[in-house]
Amino acid sequence: MSGLLRSWVESANAPDADFPLNNLPYGVFSLDDETHRCGVALGAFVIDVAGLERAGHLAFQGTLQTGVWNDFMALGCDAWHDLRVALTALFAEGAEEGALQSFLIPLADVRLHMPFRVSEFTDFYASRHHATNVGTMFRGAENALPPNWLHIPIGYNGRASSVVVSGTDVRRPWGQVKSLEDDAPRFAPSAKFDIELELGAVVGQPSDGPLTVTEAFANIFGYVLLNDWSARDIQAWEYQPLGPFQSKATATSISPWIISSAALEPFRCAPPAREVPLLPHLQDDGPMTYDIALEVALQPEGGTETIIANTNASELYYSAAQQLAHHSACGCPMRAGDLLGSGTISGPTKSARGSMLELSWNGAEPFSINGGTRSFIEEGDTLTLRGHAKGQGYRIGFGECRGKVLPALPQKA
Amino acid sequence: MSGLLRSWVESANAPDADFPLNNLPYGVFSLDDETHRCGVALGAFVIDVAGLERAGHLAFQGTLQTGVWNDFMALGCDAWHDLRVALTALFAEGAEEGALQSFLIPLADVRLHMPFRVSEFTDFYASRHHATNVGTMFRGAENALPPNWLHIPIGYNGRASSVVVSGTDVRRPWGQVKSLEDDAPRFAPSAKFDIELELGAVVGQPSDGPLTVTEAFANIFGYVLLNDWSARDIQAWEYQPLGPFQSKATATSISPWIISSAALEPFRCAPPAREVPLLPHLQDDGPMTYDIALEVALQPEGGTETIIANTNASELYYSAAQQLAHHSACGCPMRAGDLLGSGTISGPTKSARGSMLELSWNGAEPFSINGGTRSFIEEGDTLTLRGHAKGQGYRIGFGECRGKVLPALPQKA
């Protein structure tokens, strides 16, 4: 594992910096004129790569001028490599910095936007501890894991139009619910609104037929933090027999920086031991999950923050590459900008659970926060996901994925 | 119900013409230069509306120049009305036809393409006979309808990238399957590949919050025939607990002409009687389903066609407006080009079943075709959906939704 790549941008060299030269994550920012520009984070700055391309320092067929990363991603992995090499050379310690200073904009001065246009959003269910916890709650310990769970990375299609960038407020949804006490269903604001701590994989290279796991791994451009806001009471009533639908369609928040697969390369790790071997089309040929520390913070309106969960992406039983291979197995075309959620990531301990459903055991065991308790989200709560991979003397930070929950709107007449 | 609107384009006045002046369906065509152009069908011709806009006969902010109907749809229902009024005036019997002849291109000379870019695809489950048949097969007659079925239009998100236009060949998919006789799952070509006869609603007007049923009705631009190709054996193994995924992602075929809600207005009809009242947010304020006769034809490679099913869209328990209202209830943003499949449409009789799963009762009762029998699709079979609404002296035809099934590809190494 190599150490810190030093940059002439000093703030990038701090051991706790999220965005050292090793990282170079992809985002979209705007200044006062509200134009969306492609940028790359470095230390306390965003590199205006759209400007660098116009000035002739970079050449990627104008894809950096589009205000979104989709067209660049679709150029394929050679372009991804070339941009990383070019930026590393331009901003490395010792490189000529004179003309480049003007392309550095303080992060504090920019507004961040969706880094890519989500083509379609798929959400998986790949953490064994999460699936076991939820299965135990609703079907009992002996039937916790569905029969197919150890054989395929179970997933469902989500709703791309509901994906928003970190910092966007989220409205508590209305929906049809029917609890065990109800004689008939009711239409009401969700009383069990929840988070899901996930990693999102961004497909960069389009494809039109079945992919091997190795091909799929190469097609993934990078990763974001992902919070799949979930209305548990709506889900319980709607999900049989065709799966979650409106319970998952209010919003899914993502962090604003796509952390490239290249930056995460030193942190690849093997998945948990397989209880049964996978069929050949889903077998990996090396470690394809990542050692990424993850946490969830909850801050009530006007209160102080509590870290309510700590876990690690290495808990995932299936890698994003395996999920993408499975996704394409039937011939399903995949597009640049497809977003694959890992599924809620929970670890073996109680404090490593990635949803409030698990943390409070569906409300039966409310958990403590500074100045109170919680079972599910209350009005005005801000939920924040954070994550980083820890190298020798540097870290690859994801930044934050944050959202505040506002009260439900009054019902339409 | 008004009668035929006569046109100076004589082929549009035949009583059995699919595309009289009353219809004016929206499509996208190309000639030898392969440029995609917006067109409207009339009799045996396509009206080059992109050309009409360039020549100043129409003015819709250049949206007819985009080679796809999404931008026009997003202009909203006033524009939809204005285009229909303008075309009706230009092509009515007695109108000045001189300069317009050059904008009429024989349908026989064009190639048809996807009429719109599918933003996202949602598939519902709104035919009671279909849900009852499937439920009876897999859960027994006493548990046929899921408990939520009479209260919400159950739906799931499908895969937009897999939607193709009529005439596109479809490859039999590979997938993971496990039958009752299998000790362990296998990866194999689907042995139960099937059709689903559906109507697809095309959302035209975008929205960002909950819609009433009345608002939702007004936001629907039009309808297409839709065949949601389905791998029943893959579905059976994968669908618990998160719903259908790869079983539905190989392809969904649609007919090339969007039949406008305006053209179907005379054919609105009331849904089947409600067994239990719907909650207020899902109640309609008038008839919102349609009387549209539908059929499915099967033609083996080198053989002759058999009509294997006849049914009617009036069998749908939930209208597309109710589905769209439900879809938006949690605040889910809807986009121009969202496609909502009705779910398989089956009627009360055996010959009115809209899938081979139902027609052959999951293979237990193979049905007859000219020169053979079928349980599910065999190699080289061409499946064609057709539909029309019947007025006084005219019909609103949908054209065809056709696809031929090719053998599965060899497995990748």
From TrEMBL, chains A, B:
<feature type="binding site">
    <location>
        <position position="198"/>
    </location>
    <ligand>
        <name>Ca(2+)</name>
    </ligand>
</feature>
<dbReference type="GO" id="GO:0046872">
    <property type="term" value="F:metal ion binding"/>
</dbReference>
<feature type="binding site">
    <location>
        <position position="139"/>
    </location>
    <ligand>
        <name>substrate</name>
    </ligand>
</feature>
<keyword id="KW-0106">Calcium</keyword>
<dbReference type="InterPro" id="IPR036462">
    <property type="entry name" value="Fumarylacetoacetase_N_sf"/>
</dbReference>
<dbReference type="GO" id="GO:1902000">
    <property type="term" value="P:homogentisate catabolic process"/>
</dbReference>
<dbReference type="InterPro" id="IPR036663">
    <property type="entry name" value="Fumarylacetoacetase_C_sf"/>
</dbReference>
<protein>
    <recommendedName>
        <fullName>fumarylacetoacetase</fullName>
        <ecNumber>3.7.1.2</ecNumber>
    </recommendedName>
</protein>
<keyword id="KW-0460">Magnesium</keyword>
<feature type="binding site">
    <location>
        <position position="248"/>
    </location>
    <ligand>
        <name>Mg(2+)</name>
    </ligand>
</feature>
<dbReference type="GO" id="GO:0004334">
    <property type="term" value="F:fumarylacetoacetase activity"/>
</dbReference>
<dbReference type="Pfam" id="PF09298">
    <property type="entry name" value="FAA_hydrolase_N"/>
</dbReference>
<feature type="binding site">
    <location>
        <position position="228"/>
    </location>
    <ligand>
        <name>Ca(2+)</name>
    </ligand>
</feature>
<comment type="pathway">
    <text>Amino-acid degradation; L-phenylalanine degradation; acetoacetate and fumarate from L-phenylalanine: step 6/6.</text>
</comment>
<feature type="binding site">
    <location>
        <position position="228"/>
    </location>
    <ligand>
        <name>Mg(2+)</name>
    </ligand>
</feature>
<feature type="binding site">
    <location>
        <position position="123"/>
    </location>
    <ligand>
        <name>Ca(2+)</name>
    </ligand>
</feature>
<dbReference type="GO" id="GO:0006572">
    <property type="term" value="P:L-tyrosine catabolic process"/>
</dbReference>
<dbReference type="Pfam" id="PF01557">
    <property type="entry name" value="FAA_hydrolase"/>
</dbReference>
<feature type="binding site">
    <location>
        <position position="344"/>
    </location>
    <ligand>
        <name>substrate</name>
    </ligand>
</feature>
<feature type="binding site">
    <location>
        <position position="252"/>
    </location>
    <ligand>
        <name>Mg(2+)</name>
    </ligand>
</feature>
<feature type="active site" description="Proton acceptor">
    <location>
        <position position="130"/>
    </location>
</feature>
<dbReference type="InterPro" id="IPR005959">
    <property type="entry name" value="Fumarylacetoacetase"/>
</dbReference>
<feature type="domain" description="Fumarylacetoacetase N-terminal">
    <location>
        <begin position="22"/>
        <end position="115"/>
    </location>
</feature>
<keyword id="KW-0378">Hydrolase</keyword>
<feature type="binding site">
    <location>
        <position position="239"/>
    </location>
    <ligand>
        <name>substrate</name>
    </ligand>
</feature>
<feature type="domain" description="Fumarylacetoacetase-like C-terminal">
    <location>
        <begin position="121"/>
        <end position="405"/>
    </location>
</feature>
<dbReference type="InterPro" id="IPR011234">
    <property type="entry name" value="Fumarylacetoacetase-like_C"/>
</dbReference>
<feature type="binding site">
    <location>
        <position position="196"/>
    </location>
    <ligand>
        <name>Ca(2+)</name>
    </ligand>
</feature>
<keyword id="KW-0828">Tyrosine catabolism</keyword>
<feature type="binding site">
    <location>
        <position position="125"/>
    </location>
    <ligand>
        <name>substrate</name>
    </ligand>
</feature>
<feature type="binding site">
    <location>
        <position position="235"/>
    </location>
    <ligand>
        <name>substrate</name>
    </ligand>
</feature>
<keyword id="KW-0585">Phenylalanine catabolism</keyword>
<keyword id="KW-0479">Metal-binding</keyword>
<dbReference type="GO" id="GO:0006559">
    <property type="term" value="P:L-phenylalanine catabolic process"/>
</dbReference>
<dbReference type="InterPro" id="IPR015377">
    <property type="entry name" value="Fumarylacetoacetase_N"/>
</dbReference>
